[in-house]
Amino acid sequence: MSGYPNSPYGASAPSQNHYGGPPPPNQYGQPPPNQYGQNAYGQKPHPPPPGGQQGGQQPYGYPPQPHATPYVYPPAQPAFAPGTDPEIIRSFQMCDQDGSGFIDDKELQRALSSASHSFSLRTVHLLMFEFTRNNSMKIGPQEFTSLWHSLQAWRAIFERFDRDRSGKIETMELRDALLSLGYSISPTILQTLVSKYDKTGQSRGIDYDNFIECSLVVKGLTDKFKEKDKSYVGSASLTYEEFMQIVLPFIVA
């Protein structure tokens, strides 16, 4: 029999092929796609409209639409303060050859040294530690500016107390020079400093480079001790760990 008495449309249903024939059309009159993305007649489905399905994904293996990547501005480089001496800027830029805005210890050594005097790497390391308070061995424009002005002040003190113009500060001259910086040093410590920083081994006087190093050590250790001497009585209690943290940066510079 060919009729379907219960069909809602009153028409007979089409004959079915039970041995692999095509399935009946769907409600829109088109054959449904099979599991391989093709319809029953071997035709690929039409591509989806731009934008794909909800959720940003597209069917049938189409790649998602690219999203615009926001532009990330590079971090601002450190800069010199307005009104900085052009000589300072020029010296810094000559050393900062990669334009990073920082110079390392060897570059700083070249910037500070001249035909008349040179700076050892140890003095340079102490200077960098003094003006950055870290061991990164990098210094930026603002720290370089402060360092430059401080060196000018130290140079003026050195020349003031080098009364015989020997190019060296002797023991009593060193005492007066440190006192002008605010540090009253006992004769015993004073002699130890001269013995330490007189590179000739004669314990008579120290040159400009070693005067800077000596002043940095005295200043650094004194400032650290004052942090523990809250009452400013000349004595303080500190642990072994605290003592090592104070002293080591000046020993291993």
From TrEMBL:
SUPFAM superfamilies: EF-hand. GO terms for molecular function: calcium ion binding. SMART domains: EFh. The keyword Calcium applies. Keywords: Calcium. It comes from the Eukaryota. Residues 1-71 are annotated as: Disordered. InterPro entries: CML48/49/50 (IPR044590), EF-hand-dom_pair (IPR011992), EF_Hand_1_Ca_BS (IPR018247), EF_hand_dom (IPR002048). Residues 21-34, 61-71 have a biased composition (Pro residues). Residues 35-44 have a biased composition (Low complexity). Residues 83-118, 149-184 form the EF-hand domain. This is EF-hand domain-containing protein.
